[in-house]
Design a protein that fits this description.
The complex is a heterodimer of chains A (254) and B (404).
Chain A lengths: L9 E10 L2 E11 L4 E5 L6 H9 L4 E10 L2 E2 L5 H6 L2 E4 L6 E5 H15 L7 H14 L10 E2 L5 H15 L3 E5 L7 H14 L5 E6 L12 E6 L2 E6 L3 H8 L7
Helix pairs in contact in A: 5-6
Chain B lengths: L1 E3 L8 H7 L8 H13 L14 H5 L2 E4 L8 E3 L2 E4 L2 E6 L3 E5 L11 H9 L3 E5 L5 E8 L4 E10 L5 E10 L5 E11 L4 E10 L4 E11 L4 E10 L2 E10 L4 E10 L4 E10 L5 E10 L4 E10 L6 E11 L5 E10 L4 E10 L3 H8 L5 H17 L5 H18 L6
Parallel strand pairs in B: 2-9, 3-5, 4-8, 7-9, 8-10, 9-11, 10-12, 11-13, 12-14, 13-15, 14-16, 15-17, 16-18, 17-19, 18-20, 19-21, 20-22
Antiparallel strand pairs in B: 1-2, 4-5, 6-7
Classes of the chains: A alpha/beta (254), B alpha/beta (404).
């Protein structure tokens, strides 16, 4: 199955990228369609997390070739915040803790930066809190998340839920979920998946990066891309998951 | 009287007395202070406690020694001390001039003794009950040497709080020699929350303090030193049995500022505990100082002593002199110390950027967050907000953003 004949929201074209002196992505190409869930699977060291870092402009990554086209524009030279303001969101595998930055204050700053960028009126504190509480309830999060410092002392599950909370409030167009299921118990996985599924509106695209197929029981993918040695070596429909479960990545031929 | 303090160097006790205009019939405390000053000598850049602070250039200037002319204070909501004179006192509060009868004869700082010698009297503040008082210092004279000292007492089994701030008019080139002799009564708590915002070239300060924490008492000392200019606060703390000190120091410096803390915390009584934390944010060409010794005496078994300094350098020309030290004479204790100096965390900046917050704004949020971790230890919301505002004012006016 190929997805490159359809409309594309994000086009990753023959991207080469290195971290330090090591080339990780070696001519990776991938197109994301609007409204579709793309899952990226692959063995350790294949370049899955580097791909997500490259898309959001992480400082670790140096792009040495190729291009990334988002909504028809090259974003490879854009600052990370510009990519975010234009609607690209990465849910981090290991969200960083920031003591002293109040969770609600941070999120309101981010939401209002995006609203301002889109020419919308900024939310005042009361309006924002009303919205935030709605999503907290939906994700089964405690209300003390409002006043706690950003991710500080959060459990693994709380951190992931907080990522999903940010995603829901920032309303991005392309959502990259890097190992969103790692460290989650079954209840947290269900809550996080429900949050993600609520965001499916037929327009948003998802790039779900995962080691295991477990998350794909909750978020049904439209496409499975297998990444190996810095390249996409196979793209297929969801039926590929079962094949990978049974035979492993080594059985996939380029 | 004009005075250049450096002229007191290498002078005999009698010569110092003469140069300071002291009479022959000195009270015993002043006689003792003179003895100690002549033994310790005027500080130089080689003096251990002043080696990171440009003390010699301050002491080399000629100042007009400010004459204290006491007047009847008015009744107000705060204690206001203007140029070393009490001008406002809350109703019923005992704030008065007196001789110092409890001088510490083992203080390491010669300026502690010089301050006592130059000040004609001390200002005594008796904190009754669970008092909560605001103390405002105000300076209005240029080119002046202003020595004054406060002796603070609280009551047993009581929990008193002093919120201290500093104001100044359009002055320049003054030197303030100031400090506390603080006597924290048995089974009591005394909290001192100091906020000092300084502009460039208004005045310099050497604040030399002695804190005696009696048995089963708690001292909570939080200092928020913001902005520019030159100031050094020196503490000597003596801890009795089961006593505790929680000291936190926030430093945000910009321009050419040189400021910081020199402290010696002596664990004397058994089961005494100390917690000292310094957070330093250094901008421009500023220099921060945290030179802190915790000494655990033979008598201080089962003590706990923890000390930590963290510094963030916002500019390549900023500098942090951090020297945490432990001097331990027993085995039965729990102790730790450490110091880190670095830049803002790149991972944290990136995380904020990835949510659409600009690089410049992300850095500002992280600086404020770093400061907030100490500011939020001030439990009173009104004062916490006041300190936050003072910090943000100093930061937003003094910070020069670097290009990434």
């Amino acid at each position: 199955m190929s997805n490159n004949k359809n409309e594309k929201v994000l086009e990753i074209k023959d991207v080469h990228a290195k971290i330090g002196n090591k080339e990780i992505l070696k001519g990776l190409s991938l197109d994301l369609e609007p409204g579709k869930v793309h899952a990226i699977m692959g063995p350790n060291g294949a370049g899955k997390s580097t791909l997500s870092k490259t898309i959001v402009g992480h400082y670790d990554v140096e792009m040495t070739g190729g291009d990334i086209i988002y909504k028809g524009k090259s974003i490879k030279d854009w600052e990370p915040e510009e990519r975010a303001l234009e609607g690209i969101f990465l849910s981090f595998q290991h969200p960083v803790e920031i003591p002293g930055v109040n969770n609600a204050y941070f999120l309101r700053t981010a939401v209002n930066a995006k609203r301002k960028h889109e020419g919308k009126e900024e939310l005042n504190a009361a309006e924002f809190l009303r919205e935030m509480k709605k999503y907290l309830e939906l994700l089964g999060m405690k209300s003390d998340m409002i006043s706690r410092s950003l991710n500080e002392g959060f459990s693994g599950g709380e951190k992931k839920r907080n990522e999903i909370l940010q995603m829901m409030m920032l309303e991005p167009d392309v959502i990259i979920l890097d190992e969103i299921d790692s460290g989650l118990d079954i209840d947290a996985l269900r809550a996080v998946s429900e949050g993600i599924n609520r965001m499916k509106d037929g327009k948003r695209s998802f790039l779900v990066i995962t080691h295991y197929s477990r998350i794909l029981d909750y978020i049904e993918p439209d496409y499975i891309h297998v990444l190996k040695d810095g390249k996409v070596i196979k793209t297929a429909g969801p039926e590929l998951v079962a094949q990978l479960e049974e035979h492993g990545y080594d059985a996939i031929e380029e | 009287m004009r005075l250049t303090i450096n002229n007191l160097k290498k002078k005999s006790k009698d010569e110092i007395a003469q140069m300071l205009g002291l009479t022959d019939d000195l009270p015993p405390s002043k006689e003792a202070a003179l003895e100690r000053l002549s033994t310790l000598g005027i500080p130089t850049k080689k003096s251990e406690e002043y080696r990171y602070f440009d003390v010699e250039s301050l002491l080399d200037k000629s100042y007009e020694v400010h004459m204290h002319v006491p007047k009847e204070p008015k009744i107000g909501e705060k204690i206001v001390i203007e140029n070393g004179i009490i001008i406002e006192v809350p109703k019923g509060m005992r704030v008065y001039y007196d001789q110092c009868d409890a001088l510490d004869l083992t203080h390491y700082d010669p300026i502690y003794y010089l301050g006592h010698l130059l000040a004609p009297h001390v200002i005594k503040i008796d904190l009754d009950g669970d008092a909560e008082v605001e103390l405002v210092h105000r300076y209005t004279h240029s080119g002046a040497l202003l020595p004054y000292r406060i002796v603070l007492f609280n009551q047993e089994n009581r929990h008193a709080t002093v919120y201290e701030t500093f104001e100044t008019e359009e002055i320049s080139d003054s030197l303030i020699l100031y400090g506390y002799d603080m006597h924290i009564a048995k089974d009591s708590t005394l909290r001192l929350i100091k906020t000092q915002s300084m502009d460039e070239n208004r005045y310099a300060m050497i604040s030399s303090n002695r804190i005696k924490v009696n048995d089963h008492a708690n001292a909570l000392i939080k200092t928020f030193d913001l902005g520019g200019d030159q100031a050094l606060q020196l503490f000597k703390v003596d801890l009795g049995t089961y006593s505790h000190i929680d000291a936190g120091h926030l430093l945000y410096l910009n321009h050419q500022a040189k400021r910081g803390t020199v402290s010696k915390i002596n664990h004397i009584g058994e089961h005494s505990t100390s917690q000292q934390e310094a957070k330093n944010i250094l901008d421009g060409n500023a220099r921060g100082i945290f030179d802190a010794l915790i000494k655990v005496e033979h008598s201080a078994k089962w003590t706990k002593a923890h000390q930590n300094s963290k510094a963030i350098l916002l500019h390549e020309d900023a500098y942090m002199a951090a020297k945490p030290q432990l001097e331990i004479y027993i085995d039965e204790l729990e102790a730790s110390h450490g110091a880190t100096t670095g830049q803002l965390d790149r991972k944290q900046i990136f995380y904020l950027q990835s949510r659409g917050i600009s690089y410049v704004e992300a850095r500002k949020m992280l600086v404020i967050a770093f400061a907030n971790t100490l500011i939020e230890t001030v439990k009173d919301t009104r004062h916490q907000e006041r300190i936050q505002k003072a910090f943000e004012k100093a930061f937003y006016t003094g910070h020069k953003e670097l290009k990434r």
